[in-house]
Every structure is written in structure tokens, then in C-alpha cells.
Fold each of these.
Amino acid sequence: MSFSQAFATYGRADLVDIYNLGAFAGRMLSHNILVFASTSYEWRKNVFQSDDFPILSPNFSTHREWKASLGASYTPVTWLTYSYALNHDRIMSDTHLEPSIFHADFTLTFKPKYVEPYVKYRYGQHRVRPGEPRTTEGTFEFGFNLNFR
């Protein structure tokens, strides 16, 4: 079984709006193994990006980044999924940072009904926050996804 979907997201981090448009495609190799690919275009803008707030908006340019991933996930039981993804991020806007980086993610997701907590470990070249120099130190991310199926 194969499937694909387009997606759009919006988020806010401190004083930055984050927009994302992308596509995801996956193919089930067996009942519990999925291989997938994803690509997206992300842009970030300061919330106070105007002449009224010059101190809060020192950089009026928008940060743009293209992201691509290839990965696989394994679901040994219905309430648990392991996934591994190889990622490529490329900064598309003017920058003094390294524009192209590669990293990998290992994610463990618990899947009870409605709220799906996860822990992600990222290693390889990556930025902890956009606009920062890259690091090769491993980082952890904890979060949750909402599922209304």
C-alpha cells in the first residue's frame, strides 16, 4: 500500500513565525514497516518585522530553508513506533552559515489515543536553532503530536 499527502504547518517560537509547505510519500513494505520520503520549504519571519520596532527586528530578511528526508519506521505493536530518517537541510536565503547540512534522527513514538508523546535523538551536522552555527553534538527533543482519527 502506498500513500502521499501534502501538508502546511504554522508555528511560533518566541518572536518568530514559522511557515512550512511540503509533501510526504510512504510505502508499506509489510504490515509493520514503512519507508518514506518527505520534502518541504520552510520560512521564518520576525513577528515585529517593521520600522516600528527596529530594536526587535534587526534583520528584515526572511529566513528560508529547503528540507528533505528519507527514512523508515517500524511498528512492533500498535502503541509504539520506532523510526530512523536521514535528512538534508539547505538554507535558501543569504547567510554566513554553512548552507547545506546532513543529519539523522531516531524517534520513538508512543501511540495511545489522541495524544502521541515522542522522544527524538538527532545526530550529525545540524542546527539546534535556525540562524545558529551547526553542531555535531547529539540533541534530544521531547514533544507530542495530536491525532484525531
Amino acid sequence: MKKIIATLTLLLAFSVSVNAQAKKMSNQELAQKDAIALCDYLNIQGSLKADFARLFEMKYEVFNNPEASMERKIELARIMKLKIEASLDGTQLEKLNVKKDFFMALTGENQIAEKKK
């Protein structure tokens, strides 16, 4: 009986720890997710998708770093917005500006606004 209880306890402990590890996504995975969402929304193909993935990876490295200052995060969000705007043509930029919340999530401005509250 003791062995059965011990086995069930260990099984439950390992399954909880595996679930906790599975939920945390890496910076690279988060960046890929953002790049795919942006490219799917704007119908972007080719190397620009990889460029956006690298850009978003840089964002997540800074935003997930507890030592990064708020000023650095604000400046990075500004630079990201400019880089995204420079990479798109006029119609794509208009389409992206229609979804302000989506654009702010991509640049990280929404996270900055939440922390300022």
C-alpha cells in the first residue's frame, strides 16, 4: 500500500513539473509566433519573415530581461516600430495601422503601457 501511494505521489509530482516546463516558451518561439502572425496578416512571403523573427527575438530578449531598464524598453519599442514601418509598403502599413492593438503588441508598446499604470 505504501509503495502504491509513493508511486502515485511521484507520478503526480513529475506530471506537474512537466506541464510547468511545457508552458514556458523560449524567446525564439515567441518571436517566431509573432513573425508568423504578422506575415500571415499582411501576406508577406520570403526572407522578410526571417528578418521579422530576428527582430522580435531581440524584443523578447530585452523585455524578458529583468535587468533591462524601462528606458531601454521604451527605446526598443520605438526602434521596432520604425523598423517594421520601414520594411512594409504603403498598403501593408495602412492595413497594420488599422489594427493598432496588434501593432502595439508586436512592438511591445502594450507591455510598456501596462507597466506604467
Amino acid sequence: MTDSIIAAIIAASAVIVTSMVSNFLGEAFKRHREKVSVASGLVGELCAYRENIDPAKTVFGAAKNMALGGQHLPMQKIPLQTNRFYEANISKLGMLGPQIAGDVVYVYGHIQAYMVLASMLHEAEDAKHLAGMLSMMLLSIEKAERRGDPLLDALKAIAQSKFRRSLLRP
């Protein structure tokens, strides 16, 4: 009789431990999948911005030089753009780690500064004011680019990472 009770206790313990390990691995996989998804989405959004940096620097650099030469260029109103993926997932940045999360916020801060300035160009009062706004835009682009290029590499590494099933490795 005691052998059957011991066997039942061992069997029940095995079921409980297996269930706990399975649940732990399932949650770890969900977190990994979400981390990979956030990194992948940020890579997509940042790559779209990255492709436009050189043309923007060329166009706005030429406009700045013309404004510095005294030409007041009539500027069209540019609607303020949003960073849809970033804004929808800002609460999940912590899962990328503190360094990468900080870099993401820094880069997007400069992207947003660029966008706000671009949306205000049509309000420039004269050529000097326009040249100043364009200079600030170009500076924002350069800062985002300088920190954004290594950030893209780090995000791509996370996006391509594989799930590790070991309970002992982070």
C-alpha cells in the first residue's frame, strides 16, 4: 500500500514539475517572440527613415545654402508625420534592454524634432529664419543617423535571434 502511495506522490510531483517547466518555457517563448517582433518592426520603420536620409540632407542642405545666400524660399506646409510602430510599441521597449531602449528613444526623439521642424518650415519669416530651421533639421538628421546606424545593427541582431530553451541561460 505504501509503495502505491509513494508512486502516486512521485507521479503527481512529476506532473506538477513538468507543468511548471512547460508553463515557464511557454511564457519565455512568448516574451522572446514579442521582443523579436518589436525589434523587427523598429528595424522596418527605421530602415524606411534611413533610406531617405541622404536625399533629405541633399535637398534641405541646398535649401539652407540658398537661404544663407539671402533667398527666401516659399515652403509648402508639410503635415506632421507620426512614427506609427514606435508610438504603438513604446511601452515594450524595455524588453530590448536598457541600452537599446535608450538608443531607440534618442533616435526617435531626433526624428520627431526633424518632423516638427519640417512641418513648421512654411512659417519661416525670412531667409535667415528659414536657414536656422533647416540647420536644426540637418543637425537632427545627423544625430539620428550617427546613433541610428549602430542601433539598426543591434535591432537586426535581436530580430534574428533564436529562442533558447535552456532554463539556465538568460
Amino acid sequence: MTQEEWDKQCAAVKEQMAAHAYKFTTPISMSEDRVSAVAWASGSYLQNGDVTWLMTAEHTFGDLKEGQHVAHLPVRDDHFVEINQQALRAARPVDVAAVKVPAIPVDSTVDTVPMGLVAERFSAVQSELLFWIGYPGFNLIRHDPIVPERVKATLFGELRVPAVPMLSQELQFEELDHAWFDPLKHVAVHYPAMAKKVAGGPDVDMPSPKGISGSLLWNTRYLETTQGGGTWTPELAQVCGVIWFALDKPDVVFATRIEAARQGIPEVFA
């Protein structure tokens, strides 16, 4: 297979995964006055029986100061809804959290991930295509220093935070020495400074990862399926982790393995 052919396959997988996974996601906003707000984190909805959970990173709640409130967006292009319930939280090194929210309105285009699509453990084959879709919260690129004035904020009464899909692979054949990284609990996934948006196109700047914490990491199972002679569809993908940290050297994000998330907040998966 040529590089051009591989690039086209990857572009097709990313496009199909984005169409599949976007409906499960929500931006998470933060407000101090319940009038204006800023982009804060990313989250996704999970369904377990009659209970709807909003899953994100633990520091989505842990970084809040007194008087700050977070909200989610269960209906596209509507108002953010404040989160009032107490979240179940597992702090770093697990760094995952989930909170009960009301059922998604029946007329919403937003949906919930069924538990059948949540893997028991991270089991991606070597070089597998991994995917996430999150909500970068700053008008900055990958290695820009965080400047508070560049945060995405309410404008004319609305907070718009576009979703950004990413297809990547696990860091391999390179030792990762970082105090926060535990290979038994985490996986490191490439998040470069520049990447192609479309097959055959130029490399473009990737957005700052600030704000994508809480995004679900999906094992697309593309290589697993096609190398086994099967026909791949995005419905075969499984949730395999939760993103919570970005590192610059090397250019990766850390995701908590789904088995560690299950152990950290077992009530969500019971």
C-alpha cells in the first residue's frame, strides 16, 4: 500500500468516526455569574439502564474555584444546562469523573453511548487507529502558551465551541518517562503540532489541546477488522479510554485506560 492510499483510508476512517461519535459529545462550559461563560472541557453521554451519565475528566470538577459552575449542552444550538448533581470522581492518576444528568430530550440530535460500546479493557492491536472528538477551548495552536484572553467565551449571548475530530495512533517504540504516566493505567497517543485535515492536503496547525480533556478515546478496530478479513464500519468502534493530559515532548496526549476508569468510578458501569 502506498502512503497516498493509506492517507485516503485514514481520512475516510476519520470522517466516518466523526459522523458516528459526534452525537455522543458535549462541550462543557464554566460560568461565574450564570450569564457569561467560557469553554472549559469536553464530555460524552453514556447510558446505563435508565441512568444517563455525563463522563469527563476529574479535573473538569477538581479545577473549579468557589463560585464557579459548569454546564453541558444536551441540545445542539440551545442553552447550556448547569450541572447540579454531585459527580463521581477518581483523581489523578485516573482522572475520570461522571455525573448523572437528565435524559437527553427525545427531539435532540445528541445521543448516548450504550454500554455495549464501552470496552472492558484497552486492547487495541499494534498500530491501530485511535480516535477522539473534543472541544478545544482556546483560539490557539498546539504549542502556544495558554493566554487567558484567547479562551473561547460568550459572544452576543452565545458560546460556540466547535468540535475537532482527531485520528491517531498509540506512541510505540519510544520510552515515555513522565511522573504522571503509568503504562498500567494510561496510554499515550500522538497529538502532533501539525497534521493533515484531508488526504493529499497540506499539513495544518493543530489546535491547542486545552479543553479536550474529558474526550472519549475510541479504538476504531479498523486494522483489527480489515486485517482479519472483515468489513469495517464505525459501529464496530469501542470506547477504550478518557483523555486528560497533553505533553509537548513528545507530542502526545495521555488517556486513562478504560479498565482503570471502570475501577475508579465503578458505579457508572455497574
